[in-house]
Amino acid sequence: MKLSILLAAMSLASFSAFAQTGASQVDGDWIGKGSFQMGADILACSEVKMRFAGTPVLFGVRDASFACESFKQAFPMNDDFEVKANNDVYHNGMKIGAIVGTRLNVLVPGKDDVGTEFTLRREGDFLYYNEVSRAPGQAPVFGMVAIMQKDPNAGSAH
Questions:
Q1: Pairing of β 58-68 and β 94-100
Q2: What is the pLDDT of residues 118-154, one digit of tens each?
C-alpha cells in the first residue's frame, strides 16, 4: 500500500514536466551545481544558474552564471531558436537539432568549425544540462555539465 502511494505521488510530481510540449518544459530560471572543463582543468561549480525561455515554438537562452572553484562569471544572453514542425529546432533558417520527448539536443555552428553541442533533459523536477564546444575530431575547447532545479525565487523567462 505504501509503495503504491509513493509511486502515485512520484508520478504526479513529474506529470507537469511531461505535460508540457516543445521547449515549454525548460522555461524559467534554474539553479544547481555542476562542473566546468577548459583544457585539462576540471572545476567544481558550487552554483550554476541558467534562464531559458520556452514555448511550443521558441527556445531561448537568456542568461547564465557560474560560481566555480577559481572563477565566477555571468553570461548575459539573448539567443533564440525556432521550434518548428515535429519539434525540429532551427537557428538562422538552418535545422540544428530537435526536441524528442524530454530531451532537447542542438549543435550550434561557430567560427573556425568550432561547434557547440548542448543537451537539456528534463526529468521530473530536475534539468540535466550538458554542453561541449569543439571542432570536429578535436579535443573540447570547453565543457559544462549541471544538474538544476527550478529557482523558487524567480518567474518565467519569456
A1: unpaired
A2: 999 999 999 999 999 999 999 999 999 999 999 888 7
Least Cα distance to 81 among 72, 91, 95, 69 occurs for 91
pTM of the model: 0.81
For 62-81, the pLDDT digits (tens) are: 999 999 998 899 988 889 99
Torsion, Cα of 65, 62, 150, 25 (10° steps): -140
- DSSP lists the bridge partners of residue 54 as 59
Range list of H helices, the chain: 2-19
Cell of 145: 555539465
Angle, CA 106 vertex, CA 103 and CA 107 arms, to 5°: 150
Q: How far apart are CA 2 and CA 72, in angstroms?
A: 45
